[in-house]
Design brief:
mainly beta; four-stranded antiparallel β-sheet
């Protein structure tokens, strides 16, 4: 499983994530286009991965994981120098699978939550994080029925 985001205009906005929790960034610092692996893994469990990522306009990264976490990382985060900022904003009981948004004050998360999605708000550079669960109505089971398999004369419809 891989999740990625890409920007053809700015190579440093291209990221790749794996099912083992590794985060890679595309760079051309030395004139070569290479994927730089960030150490250590983003997830605590090596069997849990990053399911999806979203990058805001300031190049900060928001990730959702198999472990049920939403992780925020600043654009300048650097493992080698131990500089930048990374924080777990949310740690829930179920796997999270998707994230998208308009800006840090208005982004959404989905996962293995029954008929729910999360609307989130975060103030970058601070500990402020807020979320609410929004119920999602699905069609009645009758609407999902495939209908008759034969016509009025008993002939198969398929």
């Amino acid at each position: 499983m891989l999740s990625s985001t890409s920007d053809p205009a700015d190579l440093s906005r291209n990221f790749l994530c794996t099912s083992e929790g590794w985060l890679f960034q595309l760079s051309d610092d030395r004139g070569d286009t290479v994927w730089t692996k960030f150490y250590p893994s983003v997830t605590e469990n090596p069997g849990a991965g990053i399911q999806d990522i979203w990058i805001d306009a300031l190049r900060n990264i928001y990730m959702v994981t198999d472990e049920g976490t939403i992780i925020y990382q600043t654009a300048d985060y650097n493992f080698a120098e131990e500089e930048g900022y990374r924080k777990t904003l949310y740690d829930g009981p179920v796997s999270l699978t998707g994230i998208w948004g308009i800006d840090p004050n208005n982004f959404y998360v989905v996962g293995y939550m029954d008929n729910m999605l999360m609307r989130c708000s975060h103030l970058p550079g601070s500990d402020f994080f807020n979320f609410e669960f929004i119920p999602v109505e699905f069609p009645a089971s009758k609407a999902m029925d495939s209908g008759p398999t034969v016509d009025k004369f008993g002939r198969p419809l398929y």
